[in-house]
Structure formats: structure tokens, C-alpha cells
Amino acid sequence: MSSKARRLPGAIVAALLVPLVLPLLGCGKKGPPMPPLRFIPKPTQDLTVAQKGRELAFELSFPSETVSGAPMPQLQRIELWALTRPAPEEGTPQPLNPRELEGAVELVQTLRDQDLREASVGGELAFRLPLPATEPRQTFFFTVKSVVSERDTSDFSNQAVIVPRPPPPAPRDLSLTPLPEGIEVAWTLPDISAFEGGEPPAAFHVYRRDPRNRFWGEPLKVGGPSELRALDDSAEFGKTYVYTVAAVMSLDPVLESPLGGEREIEYRDVFAPDPPRDPVALPEAGQVRLVWEDSPAADVAGYQVYRRSGAPGAADDWQRLTEQPSSRREYLDGGLAPGTAWIYRVTAVDGEGNESEPSTEVRAEVR
Questions:
Q1: pTM of the model
Q2: 225 cis-preceded (ω within 30 degrees of 0)
Q3: Which of 267, 295, 330 marks a domain boundary?
């Protein structure tokens, strides 16, 4: 059969291709529109409130997850909602039924933009509101919502409950004393009769912050009701700190006095180490070998050795034998005339150049 005879007519070829092309064209057909992604924040579960002087202090973790556990996009705002009820005569008020709360709470504060940035401390949010005037006593129920957009808003958080009370007077006469083992913070109190009911504080909160940070954070120390001083043994040499203290009338929820002033201190190492112990002078031919035990101080950089004549009536003129502090616990004093007597003592020196008191003196007569 010739090639001409095998060629199909163009109309027939087109008719055969049409059923094949139509399904291919159908593959590009658009389906129904997909719904937009949702970023509903996971509700906060760790909202807390405390009374600090004449302010209410709120803390919560910075919202970071959606309800599905995915990372959350940028937070638009935090809303603080509140509801009041008469305070119970006795006992601690309990959280409300969620339906009762949701049906009656009112928006009292919104944090967005600069407010959110200023309230952010690490992975936490911390902010304060002036203490509302309430007569008679009222219970405040607080809750928050996290908002990414008007469509993406969290459910209400846990409830933070507090009954505000007249704040106790602040501690006075705050003072700081640097010591080798840390910084001692001390204070005094006004007359106990100035406290509500004439009762003494339940505790004291000592706070410390970096001068570059205006947030106090959690208490550094919690002292008992009769303690009027505390030692910050975590202070580090070469750093500057700011301290304050508050009287605490209640620990659950926290009810603090206003802060009792602020004091700043540069904690410098001006403290000499303890002297070395148990020096022994061993006379040898033409020399004296001096050995000793380490100073118990942890920051010793080396030791200095001193000598004076041991002859009767000799002047008490000490000569330093070491040009630089020695890291060794022995010293060989050579080139000495036989029959001469010498008295030795040793001091410890730290990295800041602070020198200890001298050790006990030891005497040796050269052979």
C-alpha cells in the first residue's frame, strides 16, 4: 500500500483528537475557592494579678501558639476584661462560672503596639493599672483575650481574682552594704499600728534589677515577718544593681506595700582574701626553704613573701622578696650567710590586687 493510501483525511484526524483534547482541557478547571487560613490564638492559662501598693500588677506568658499548636503570626493586641462582685465576708473568692463571666465582663484595657513592646519582658507580658477605688470591698475578676485580627481572637483566658485592700505602709531607710559574700539589703518599718488591723507584715519582698531595665521581675529574696535585712549572695563583682523592698500583707494573692525607695550600688571587689595558713621555715645550707598552706579564699591570684632580720634588736623592717605574686606555695631564699637568723611571713593577693593580712611569722637560722 502506498503512503498516500495510508494517509487519513484531515477531518477524520480532527474528529479523533477532539475526545482526547477535551479531558485535558478539563484538568485546568478551577475548583471551589479555599477558605482563608485561620490563626486563632490559644487561650492564655497563666494570667495572674497582684496588688503592689496602689497598683494592680498583671503577668502572663506572651501568646505564641494557635489553637492548633502552630506558631502564631504577629499579635495585634491584648484585651483585659473585668467584672466586679461584692467580696465575701470570709474566705477566698472563687472563679466564676465561665458563662456568667462571659456575659458580664467589660473591656477595661487594651495593649497594642508600643504598649505591647513595653510590657514584653522575655517571654512574659507584665503591665500595671492604677488601683480602682472600691467601697465597699469588691472582688475583681480579670480575664484576657489575644487578638491577631478581628476574625482571629482567642477565647477568654483563665480568671485572675483579687480583693483589693488598703496597701500597707512602705518600708523605710533602705540601705545597702557591700560584703565579701554579697550585698546586704536592710530596712526599717513604720509603727506597726500603721498596718491594717495593727498586724505585722506576713513577709518582705526584696527586689533587684539592672539599672538599664525598669522592670523588677520576681522577688530576689522573701524574708520572714521579723527579718529586716537580707543578703544577696548572687551579686557579682564588677556589676551595678538597683534594689528595693516591699512589705507583704498577703502571699495568695500577693498584697504588697508601695516600694520602699530605691538604692543603686556598684559592687566592686575591695575585699582582701584570707591570709595563707601554717607557714614553716626550713633552714638549709646557705638558704631557707619557706612553705605554707593555701589561703581559704577562692579568688587568690598568688602570694607575696616578706623577710626581716631575726638578729636581737634588729629593726622591724620588712623586705618583700617576690617581685610578683607567686602561684606556688613555697619560696627558696638563697645566698644567705651561715649562722644568720631571719623571720618570714606571707600574704595572699587576689586578682584585683587586694592583699591579705600577713600570716603568722616564722623564724629560721641558716646552717
A1: 0.74
A2: no
A3: 267
